[in-house]
Design goal:
Elements lengths: L3 H12 L3 H23 L2 H18 L10 H20 L21 H20 L2 H11 L5 H8 L3 H20 L1
Helix pairs in contact: 1-2, 2-3, 2-4, 3-4, 5-8, 6-8, 7-8
């Protein structure tokens, strides 16, 4: 897991056109930023496209990131969330712009019945594995990977040092992976 200083360094080097730094930044942050996009858009394909736009924006605007003492992840998450919200707003049809008689696709919105069953099964498996974690660890995992909270925010909320929070999250993810592999 990358440190905040490493992420800040990669962003600064991206501003200078360093492709290796951009690759490192992507490897270290893409999972979390994808989670942010997916949470807002609720559609995997659209979240993947949005994530690509996020990294294009980061590459082009890296020189605008200012080290302020706040987490660089806050800036990255803000970029991802704002682009995902922009996409969400763009896909909403304007009132009156589309006549129902002109619609070609009359299929029900959302996943197919088969996909819904599979997703429900996976959700139950994940929920079961989350229940195996201590309550504070499960809350920290949800905060970090679903709500976009920074490690610092989580550490303050739970009253533990930052490195302890990182350890909690790393070990919790390992336990979740082991549980899901059973």
């Amino acid at each position: 897991m990358a440190t905040l200083e490493e992420i800040e360094d990669w962003i600064a080097r991206c501003a200078l056109g360093d492709r290796a730094a951009f690759s490192s930044l992507y490897d270290a942050t893409s999972a979390k930023l994808f989670g942010v996009c997916l949470r807002v858009l609720k559609h995997r394909g659209e979240a993947e496209e949005c994530l690509q736009d996020v990294y294009i924006r980061i590459w082009r605007k890296a020189d605008r990131y200012a080290v302020t003492g706040h987490s660089p992840m806050t800036w990255l998450i803000t970029v991802a969330r704002n682009l995902a919200i922009d996409r969400l707003r763009a896909r909403r049809p304007d009132a009156g712009a589309e006549d129902i008689a002109d619609r070609r696709d009359l299929s029900a919105p959302g996943p197919s019945p088969e996909a819904a069953v599979i997703a429900g099964s996976e959700a139950r498996r994940i929920a079961g594995c989350m229940n195996e974690l201590d309550e504070d660890r499960a809350d920290a995992v949800k905060g970090a990977y679903l709500d976009g909270d920074t490690y610092q925010e989580l550490a303050e909320r739970h009253g533990v040092p930052l490195n302890t929070m990182r350890t909690w999250l790393r070990r919790s993810l390992q336990k979740l992976r082991e549980c899901l592999d059973r």
